[in-house]
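Q: What residues go here?
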């Protein structure tokens, strides 16, 4: 299944708020009542599918990629659901988004693809690159790159930067201080249902 490129609000109406996918918001009361009505009719399989789709669309990954992350998370000691979220959150495109350098994860992916972002002073063009504690993320020293990021930093999509990240907005340099905690994940979902969805396949 390829990456979704259709209308984003249609997905938000169906699944609820997805901060990584779009900054646009629908009427909260309408979406809440619509979701409530749907949830009354949904089977257990459909509920698990819905939680899985939230992950896919929010982080902008394909079905194949998500399946790979689930397998990786199962191999790591600890809660599979929490490890899965940490793997997705520590992707370079998501980290750039959480730092406020891009308005959405698709925009952050484009920044990385076009070579505007460096990790430890090396240009990285792979959005799925896994950031590690101690990594230094910076913007390429080009006027075009720096202006692009400067405009995004003025109005970040999420108001708070997670505690595992630190940024110097003037120098446009950030440090990864650790692994993200579950409480700082911006997406509202039950990750255990995602793990259950794949364990039943």
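A:
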């Amino acid at each position: 299944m390829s990456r979704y490129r259709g209308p984003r609000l249609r997905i938000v109406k169906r699944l609820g708020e997805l901060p990584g996918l779009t900054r646009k918001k629908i009427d909260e009361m309408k979406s809440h009542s619509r979701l409530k009505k749907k949830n009354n009719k949904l089977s257990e399989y459909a509920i698990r599918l819905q939680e899985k789709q939230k992950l896919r669309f929010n982080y902008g990954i394909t079905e194949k990629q998500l399946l790979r992350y689930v397998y990786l998370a199962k191999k790591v000691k600890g809660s599979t659901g929490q490890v899965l979220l940490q793997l997705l959150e520590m992707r370079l495109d998501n980290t750039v988004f959480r730092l406020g350098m891009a308005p959405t994860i698709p925009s952050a992916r484009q920044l990385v693809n076009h070579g505007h972002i460096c990790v430890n002073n090396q240009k990285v063009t792979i959005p799925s690159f896994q950031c590690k504690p101690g990594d230094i993320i910076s913007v390429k020293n080009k006027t075009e790159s720096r202006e692009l990021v400067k405009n995004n930093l003025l109005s970040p999509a999420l108001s708070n930067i997670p505690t595992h990240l630190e940024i110097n907005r003037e120098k446009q340099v950030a440090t990864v201080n650790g692994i993200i905690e579950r409480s700082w994940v911006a997406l509202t979902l039950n990750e255990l249902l995602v793990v259950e969805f794949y364990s039943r396949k």
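A: Context that may help when evaluating the design: The chain has two domains: 8-85+187-199, 91-178. The chain has nine helices and five strands.
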